[in-house]
Amino acid sequence: MATVHLHSDQGYQQVLRSRTHAFRSDEPADAGGTDSGPAPYELLLGSLAACTGITLRMYADRKGWSLGRIEIDARFARAEDGTETITRKVRFGEALDEEQCRRLAEICEKTPVTKTLKRAMAISTEIERR
Protein backbone atom coordinates (compact mmCIF):
# COMPACT_ATOMS: atom_id res chain seq x y z
CA MET A 1 0.00 0.00 0.00
CA ALA A 2 1.27 3.48 -0.85
CA THR A 3 0.48 6.58 1.20
CA VAL A 4 1.29 10.27 0.86
CA HIS A 5 0.70 13.09 3.34
CA LEU A 6 0.36 16.68 2.10
CA HIS A 7 0.32 20.03 3.82
CA SER A 8 -0.22 23.43 2.27
CA ASP A 9 -0.12 26.64 4.27
CA GLN A 10 -0.77 29.18 1.51
CA GLY A 11 -0.71 29.64 -2.24
CA TYR A 12 -0.43 26.69 -4.58
CA GLN A 13 2.77 25.24 -3.11
CA GLN A 14 2.16 21.77 -1.70
CA VAL A 15 4.59 19.84 0.50
CA LEU A 16 4.26 16.07 0.25
CA ARG A 17 5.76 13.31 2.36
CA SER A 18 5.99 9.63 1.58
CA ARG A 19 7.89 7.29 3.86
CA THR A 20 11.15 9.23 4.54
CA HIS A 21 10.93 11.45 1.45
CA ALA A 22 9.68 15.03 1.14
CA PHE A 23 8.93 16.77 -2.15
CA ARG A 24 6.96 19.71 -3.48
CA SER A 25 4.31 20.34 -6.06
CA ASP A 26 3.32 23.76 -7.33
CA GLU A 27 1.89 25.50 -10.35
CA PRO A 28 4.06 27.40 -12.83
CA ALA A 29 4.34 31.16 -12.33
CA ASP A 30 2.10 31.83 -15.35
CA ALA A 31 -0.65 29.83 -13.61
CA GLY A 32 -0.35 31.75 -10.33
CA GLY A 33 2.16 29.49 -8.57
CA THR A 34 5.78 29.98 -7.61
CA ASP A 35 7.11 27.09 -9.74
CA SER A 36 8.80 25.51 -6.70
CA GLY A 37 8.08 21.97 -7.90
CA PRO A 38 6.40 19.94 -10.61
CA ALA A 39 2.72 20.56 -11.29
CA PRO A 40 0.29 17.73 -10.42
CA TYR A 41 0.06 16.37 -13.97
CA GLU A 42 3.87 16.39 -14.16
CA LEU A 43 3.97 14.29 -10.98
CA LEU A 44 1.46 11.91 -12.54
CA LEU A 45 3.62 11.60 -15.67
CA GLY A 46 6.68 11.13 -13.48
CA SER A 47 4.97 8.28 -11.64
CA LEU A 48 4.14 6.59 -14.93
CA ALA A 49 7.66 7.07 -16.30
CA ALA A 50 9.33 5.88 -13.08
CA CYS A 51 7.15 2.79 -12.84
CA THR A 52 7.83 2.03 -16.50
CA GLY A 53 11.59 2.38 -16.09
CA ILE A 54 11.68 0.25 -12.94
CA THR A 55 9.50 -2.47 -14.46
CA LEU A 56 11.55 -2.58 -17.67
CA ARG A 57 14.79 -2.82 -15.70
CA MET A 58 13.40 -5.64 -13.51
CA TYR A 59 12.22 -7.56 -16.57
CA ALA A 60 15.51 -7.08 -18.44
CA ASP A 61 17.50 -8.15 -15.37
CA ARG A 62 15.49 -11.39 -15.16
CA LYS A 63 16.07 -12.02 -18.87
CA GLY A 64 19.77 -11.12 -18.69
CA TRP A 65 19.29 -8.33 -21.24
CA SER A 66 21.47 -5.22 -21.18
CA LEU A 67 19.34 -2.13 -21.78
CA GLY A 68 21.93 0.52 -20.98
CA ARG A 69 20.44 3.87 -20.15
CA ILE A 70 16.64 4.03 -20.18
CA GLU A 71 15.07 7.33 -21.23
CA ILE A 72 11.32 7.90 -21.12
CA ASP A 73 9.41 10.97 -22.26
CA ALA A 74 5.78 11.19 -21.17
CA ARG A 75 3.31 13.81 -22.38
CA PHE A 76 -0.26 14.53 -21.27
CA ALA A 77 -2.64 16.20 -23.71
CA ARG A 78 -6.32 17.14 -23.64
CA ALA A 79 -8.05 17.55 -27.01
CA GLU A 80 -10.74 20.14 -27.68
CA ASP A 81 -13.41 17.43 -27.31
CA GLY A 82 -12.09 16.68 -23.79
CA THR A 83 -10.33 13.43 -24.72
CA GLU A 84 -7.23 12.96 -22.56
CA THR A 85 -4.21 10.97 -23.70
CA ILE A 86 -0.76 10.16 -22.40
CA THR A 87 1.99 9.45 -24.90
CA ARG A 88 5.05 7.58 -23.68
CA LYS A 89 8.29 7.29 -25.70
CA VAL A 90 10.95 4.86 -24.48
CA ARG A 91 14.59 4.70 -25.60
CA PHE A 92 17.42 2.41 -24.58
CA GLY A 93 21.17 3.00 -24.60
CA GLU A 94 21.88 -0.50 -25.92
CA ALA A 95 20.91 -1.83 -29.35
CA LEU A 96 18.03 -4.31 -29.07
CA ASP A 97 16.62 -6.69 -31.64
CA GLU A 98 13.06 -6.48 -32.96
CA GLU A 99 11.76 -9.26 -30.71
CA GLN A 100 13.24 -7.62 -27.58
CA CYS A 101 11.65 -4.29 -28.54
CA ARG A 102 8.28 -5.97 -29.14
CA ARG A 103 8.42 -7.72 -25.76
CA LEU A 104 9.51 -4.57 -23.91
CA ALA A 105 6.62 -2.66 -25.50
CA GLU A 106 4.26 -5.33 -24.13
CA ILE A 107 5.85 -4.99 -20.69
CA CYS A 108 5.30 -1.20 -20.80
CA GLU A 109 1.57 -1.85 -21.12
CA LYS A 110 1.61 -4.10 -18.04
CA THR A 111 3.34 -1.86 -15.50
CA PRO A 112 1.35 -1.33 -12.29
CA VAL A 113 0.85 2.42 -12.82
CA THR A 114 -0.07 1.91 -16.50
CA LYS A 115 -2.73 -0.62 -15.52
CA THR A 116 -4.10 1.65 -12.79
CA LEU A 117 -4.38 4.62 -15.15
CA LYS A 118 -6.01 2.56 -17.90
CA ARG A 119 -8.65 0.95 -15.71
CA ALA A 120 -9.32 4.03 -13.55
CA MET A 121 -10.55 3.57 -10.00
CA ALA A 122 -12.95 4.79 -7.39
CA ILE A 123 -11.67 7.68 -5.28
CA SER A 124 -13.37 8.42 -1.98
CA THR A 125 -13.01 11.68 -0.09
CA GLU A 126 -13.69 12.44 3.58
CA ILE A 127 -13.62 16.01 4.90
CA GLU A 128 -12.55 16.18 8.54
CA ARG A 129 -13.80 19.14 10.56
CA ARG A 130 -11.80 20.65 13.39
Automatic annotation (TrEMBL):
InterPro entries: KH_dom-like_a/b (IPR015946), OsmC/Ohr_fam (IPR003718), OsmC/Ohrsf (IPR036102). Gene3D superfamilies: 3.30.300.20. SUPFAM superfamilies: OsmC-like (SSF82784). Coiled coil: none annotated. It holds the Pfam family OsmC. This is OsmC family protein.
